[in-house]
Amino acid sequence: MINDVEMLTYVLQNAEMGCQGISSVRKRLHDSKVDGVLCEQLIKYGKLYHCANNMLRNRGAEIRHVSPVTKAMTRYAAERDLKRDSSASHVAEMMIKGNTMGVNKMSRHIRDYDGGDPHVSTLAKKMLDTEEENIKEMTPFL
Question: Domain range spanning residue 128?
Fold first, then answer.
C-alpha cells in the first residue's frame, strides 16, 4: 500500500516531469496553437506541483524531486526527437505518449493508495484527470 507522503511525492514528481517535458518541447515548437495548449497544461502542472509541495511541507515530509539525471535524459530525448521532426502532429504524439504513461502509472498508484486522507485522494484524482484531459487536448493536432 502507498501512504499519503508516497502519493503526494508521486503527484509532485509527476507534475514536475510534466513541466519538464512541456518546457523541453516548447523550445523547438513552431506552432502557436499547440504552444497555447501546452502553456495552459504547464500552468495546470504548476498548480498541482505547488499543491503537492505544500501538502508535503505541512506534513513535515522531505521533498524528493525528480533526479537531475532523469530531467537531463528527458531534455535530451525531446531535443533528439524534435530534431528529426518538430511538426505539430509529432509534438502532439510525443505529449500523448507521455500523458498516457502518466495515466497508467497514476491509475496504479491510486489503486495502491491506502486512502488515508481525502485531500490527497482528491489531488491524485485531479492529476489523473489532468493527464486524461491533456491527451484529449493534443489529439486534434495529430
Answer: 4-141
The CA dihedral of 50, 56, 59, 60, to the nearest 10 degrees, is -110
CATH number for the domain including 107? Answer: 1.20.1260.10
| Phi (first) and psi of residue 2, to 5 degrees | -100, 130
- The answer for residues whose C-beta is within 8 angstroms of residue 142's C-beta and 6 or more apart is 89, 92, 93, 96
d(CA 89, CA 118) in angstroms, rounded, equals: 38
Q: Is the overall model pTM greater than 0.85, yes or no?
A: yes
Q: Grid coordinates in use for 137?
A: 487536448
pLDDT tens for residues 24-62?
Answer: 999 888 889 999 999 999 999 999 999 999 999 999 999
Residues in CB range of 10: below 8 A, 6 or more apart: 2, 105, 106, 109, 124
Question: Residue 6 and residue 66: Cα distance in Å, rounded?
Answer: 14
Q: Please tell me the distance from the alpha carbon of residue 42 to that of residue 16, in angstroms, as a whole number.
A: 10
- Nearest one of 41, 36, 32, 55 to 134, comparing CA atoms: 41
